[in-house]
Amino acid sequence: MSLKADSEGKTYDDINVTPMVDLYLVLLLIFIIMTTAGIQGVKVNLPKASNTPSLAKPKMKAITVNNEGKVFLDTFPVSLAELETKLQAAKAAVPDLPVVIKGDSLTQYQGIMDVLNVVGKVGITQVGLATKTRDK
Fold first, then answer.
1. What pTM was computed for the model?
2. How many Å apart are CA 111 and CA 73, to the nearest integer?
3. Could you tell me if 88 and 32 lie in one domain?
4. Domain assignment of residue 102, yes or no
5. Residue 122 domain boundaries
6. Which residues lie closer than 8 Å to 21 by C-beta, 6 or more apart?
């Protein structure tokens, strides 16, 4: 540290921080190298997954109503009566069966209400309505 005087004769302290910054950078570099060197795991022989699709059925059912008013259960077209019987069978297998209802933006509101009535009649309580986020 050195004392310097300005034009009026007052002294002030001047600290050169460049060596401290260099020291901090070297310490940071050493810390990064030591941390990444310590994160090596034990080598294991990982199991291989099969390429065949799983036979397990999804636990959630998706009901879609398109702009023509047609109803689809997991991409298969169904009538409202078929929807009710298939949902009852699915609810018997999975008591807390979640259902997601997707409707086209041009779908008549009555089509969605008919599907909601069927879902309520079956006794499914976990119902979600799929939407998109609105672009601003």
1. 0.55
2. 14
3. no
4. yes
5. 61-129
6. none
pLDDT at residue 107 in the model: 78
pLDDT score for 33? 83
Which residues contact residue 106 at a Cβ distance below 8 angstroms, ignoring those fewer than 6 apart? 67
Task: Find out whether 130 and 101 touch, Cβ atoms under 8 Å.
Answer: yes
Are both 66 and 125 inside the same structural domain?
yes
pLDDT per 10-residue tile (average), the chain, 136 residues:
61 76 91 74 70 66 88 90 91 88 83 90 88 72
Q: Are 89 and 124 in contact (CB under 8 A)?
A: no
CATH number of the domain that residue 72 is part of: 3.30.420.270
Q: Side by side, which strands form the sheet with 98-103?
A: 76-78, 71-73, 61-65, 98-103, 126-129
Token reading at 110: 């009555």
